[in-house]
Amino acid sequence: MADVETLSHSGISVHDLKEAEDFYCGILGAQVHGAVNFVTEDTLKGRSVHQSYTLGDFLFALVLAPDFMPMPPADKLMGVNGFRHAFAVRHADFDATIARLKAAGVPFKGPVGHPDKGPFGESVYFKDPSGNFLELLWRRDENVDYAKAPQLDVG
Amino acid sequence: MALNGAFSHLVVECADLEKSEAFYRDVIGLDVVGRNLVADNRPNSLLATNTRQRLLLVETGEVPPYPGSGGSIHHAWLLTIEQFKAARDRLEAAGFSSGIDPRQSFRAVGEYNMDIHDPDGNRFQIQAFGEEGTEILRSGAGTVMMGHMDDFAVGSVTHNRKGRFFLVREDEGFLAVSSWCTHKNGLTIWQKESWHFYCPFHGAKYDRKGCYVGHMGCQPMRLHPMQIDALGQVVVDTNRFFGRSGFEAAQAVPAEPGGKFDETGLTELPACDEKEVRERAKTGG
User: Fold this and answer.
1) What is the CATH number of domain A10-139?
2) Would you tell me which residues 51-110 of chain B have a C-beta closer than 8 angstroms to some C-beta of chain A?
């Protein structure tokens, strides 16, 4: 057993909250969870302004960052640039997921197959509108019953 | 899109795979699954949490530094309180300063946090929630005299900071609404521009009657019993708390001399002393 239960949440820096929300909610199917510090006074005082979302079992915040990582070139679809989040879909739905990215006009790389000895099956790589790298994949261990993730909480 | 448990793994770049793997294994406490298990030509290591989630370290040789303080880009590990204590010991043994939480003023009571940077300067939050976050906290203000009932206009919300409650004047009468967020013991504030109680800790919102608005499924804010005495003075008993499933007109104390709180249909909740819990929270995490 690991000494860490799970990843609680992530903060993802974006250039434009509305554009990012349309992408994460409209294309990836995320749900709005709650806004933190959306009063003008908070912004003036330099507090973090962010909106949190859930995507399946995962909680993340889209953060309007005061300082931003330099972004990779637009035509680079697969990379890390510090971090990359990967989300799993069921193997049976993988083709439909790719079709959905195509229909939404999201450029992607892949599918790329992973070695058989690992838990990952195939991945597609793409970016959000702010240039954060993302990955969608199916996993060979998709039917393994891992411990249930603890209840979501926001930070 | 049929997501399966949704979040699969986080890919993190590192300059030195040996060093970073040792950090995430020995200090953070992840389990190493194995090396080079994914389609990436660069050396990589896969590590596991106790759920489906994995962390993939990829050695890139050079990791670009974050601008400034790293901004708000971060990831948080969720630990149990026991794991949190063990992690703090490991961090201190490894030479990290774990005693300072730079955003302590943003934490709710019973929310424990350490902010650390991995060998490449990536910011990680280590987070745990203790039972102090769900206990009901008694302010110690006891019985609070708020003044004459005619001084509170219908629609007004009056904050009593010491007593940790809001006196709300509705059409139906008065409500003494406890300021504590029912999510994780943050103190809410009244945002008059949107007519909401708002918890700045995790973003919970409640309407003026104290009923939760949003997706987190929180219980309504709790009520203190109160009365209007024979002279029309408003008296709130902050020692007692009542839980409810929603708002009903009968919860409001009639705005007339002798107006009384009606406990029917409400559940009295056991409370702890706020000071004592805050003390416990200092050493508990």
Assistant:
1) 3.10.180.10
2) 51-56, 58, 60, 63-64, 66-69, 71-80, 83, 86-87
pLDDT one-digit tens code per residue, B125-146: 888 888 888 889 999 999 999 9
The tens digit of pLDDT for each residue in B141-166 reads 999 999 999 999 999 999 999 999 99
User: Domains in chain B, ordered, with CATH?
Assistant: 9-62+71-129 (3.10.180.10), 137-272 (2.102.10.10)
State the smallest CA–CA distance between residue B281 and chain A in angstroms: 17
User: What are the domain boundaries of chain A?
Assistant: 10-139
Q: Residues of B numbered 218-277 whose beta carbons fall under 8 angstroms of chain A's beta carbons: which are they? A: none
Q: Taking the CB of residue A124, how many other CB atoms lie within 10 A of it?
A: 21
Model pLDDT, residue B246: 95
In this structure, how many other beta carbons lie within 10 angstroms of the beta carbon of residue B134?
13
Cβ-based burial of B93 (10 A; exposed 0-12, middle 13-18, buried ≥19): exposed
Q: What is the CA angle A38-A51-A88, rounded to 5?
A: 180
Q: Which pLDDT belongs to residue B277?
A: 85
Q: How far is B270 from chain A (nearest CA, A)?
A: 24
